[in-house]
Structures are given as structure tokens and as C-alpha cells.
Amino acid sequence: MPEMNTSSLPDLIFTILFFFMMVTTMREVTLKVKFTIPQGTELEKLEKKSVVSFIYVGPPTDNLRAQMGSSTRIQLNDRYAEAREVMDFIAAERQGMTNQAEQIISIKADQQTQMGYITDIKEVLRKSWALRINYSASRRN
Amino acid sequence: MAKKKKKMPGLNTSSTADISFMLLIFFLVTTSMDTDMGLARRLPKPPEPDQEDATMDIKARNILYVRLNAAGQLWIQDEMNFGFADIKELRPRVKEFVKNEQNLSRLPEKHVKNIDLLGQCFVTDKHVVSVQTDRGTPYNIYFQVQNELVAAYNELRNELSKQKFGREYQYLKDEEKAAIRQYYPQNISEAEPKKYGGDK
Fold this sequence. Notes:
Chain A has one domain. Helices cover 30% and strands 23% of the residues of chain A. Chain A has helices at residues 9-23, 65-68, 86-95, 115-127; strands spanning 25-26, 39-40, 44-45, 52-58, 73-76, 79-81, 104-109, 132-136, 138-139. In chain A, the strands form two sheets. Chain A has a five-stranded mixed β-sheet, with helices on one face. Chain B has a domain at 58-190: Nucleotidyltransferase, domain 5 (2-Layer Sandwich). Chain B is an alpha/beta fold. Chain B is built from four helices and nine strands, in the order αβββββαβββααβ. Strand 1 of chain A pairs antiparallel with strand 1 (31-32) of chain B, so a sheet runs across the interface.
């Protein structure tokens, strides 16, 4: 029996690979805070990933709780930060953007977070002219 | 002196499939499919240093206060009615407030406004929904309130666009959307959070 011709198998796999590269997004950061985002009905999709920056708010993850405690923390990129550091973060995020006016800040915050933390972040965002924000949420059925 | 041509053996490509499989698996592991969703809001511009408090000039009938205390309780207040309320009451209250269908004197005043595509309209564009939170308010409650406010505006806009253009708001052309937005502008103001007393 002649062997099956497998020479087009790599091409096939590459096609699948390219498909996945296009429809998925890179996982941005390792999360150091854990959060359950709220559920809403009037949500919009975040279309342009290139102009979106994420701010995570919540208590430290279980394995970090021993050192960091369980009070609410803000995570920017890969580390914990204070609300006032958001300004530098915004400036750094803007560096690579071509259309800075379209910058969107997505706030991923835990449901139980006290509004004080969110308000502090919002005040800094206002001062840094990052006015388009997005409260990250999942769809409620 | 032509030498006898030797046939080159083909490069063994049988492992290419394995390599691309490994790439594929790498991408499957490091990426995520889920699309991010959220409630889009726009923050007000930063205050000018010499700016005076603009809320002083707004008539009482034009403001709907939505207050959230540290316990997560909701307080709705317009010129006539005030009191604690359930979150389910918020949407109809906001709709009634923004629409002011019967032109009642306790609800926002109406102005004649010329809007492209819609002509002369009688709109409540001076209304303000003022959301005030406490530093201790749970984020989830605040989010649900924001969600209800946006939902109220979306319902109003949908009603109007169905009536005027026969389609839902999201299917309208850009200039039609702009006209609807002028009819029902989203005037949500968020004051500095207050501490109504009690510990954080």
C-alpha cells in the first residue's frame, strides 16, 4: 500500500494557527488581584484592543494574601500601585498609541470594592485627560 | 565536460507538522478568546482652577438626585418626592424625569430646540441626573445604578427612534443617531463623593 501523502499537513496546521492568532488576544498580564466583575445589561464590546488599557482593582490573590493582606489593591501592568501612579501609567500607555484621543481605560474591579478606590482612580483619570472609561462587566441574562 | 547530474534528495519536511502543531498549542495556551465587554462612560473634563461650582445655577426641578450611602442603599430625590428606593424603581423614575411627557412643573423644564432631521422639538435638555456616592458604597451597587441610568436613556432613545425613523437606535445612521442624542442628551453628573457620616 502506498503511504499517504502528508506534505500538506504543515500548511493545514499553519492555517489553523493563523486563524487562532487572529481571533484571540494575548493574555496581557498575570493577575495579582482577584475580582468578580459586575453583571450588566447595557454593555458594549471593546472593539479596538490597541487603544485599551486595563486597571485591575480587587483583593490580592490567594497565594499573595499572606504577604500582602486582604485589603483592596490596584494593579497596573504587573505590579501593585497606588491611585496616584495611574497618571504615569496612562502616560506610558499613551506612548505607543497613534490616536491618543481614542484611548479607553477599562476598569476591572471586584464587586465588593468600596467606591473610594474607584473614585480616586477616576479623579486621577480626569486629571490625566483619559476621559473614556469602561466599567468591565459580564452580560446578565 | 558535463557531469552526470545527481538528483538532490528532498529535504525531510516530516517534522514541520510537529513544529507548527507546537506553535499552535503555544498560541492556544497563551491567548484568550473572550471578548471584553463593559459599560462605556465618559468622564467630565478636569475642572479649571478658577471654575465656579456650576450646580448652583441649576433649578431644583431640573435635578434628579441619586444618592448611594455606605450601606448600598439608594435614595432618589426630585423636587417633589424623595426617599429610599429599590433599584427597580430607578429606571422608570429616570425615564419619567427625562421625558416629562405631560410637561409637569415638578419635572425638568422644556425648551424649543431645532434639531436636524427632527425639526422643532420640545426637549428637556437642561436636566441633570446627579449621582452621589459614599466612599464606602460597594462598587457593584454603583455599577448597577449606572447600568440602570444608561438603560433608561437607551429605552427613551429607542422609543423615539422607533417613532421617528421606524427602527431601533442601534440600526440608525450616524446623523440620525446624533439627532436622537440631541433630543435625549445624557446628562449624568457625578459629584465628589461625600461622607454622610459613619465610618468608611
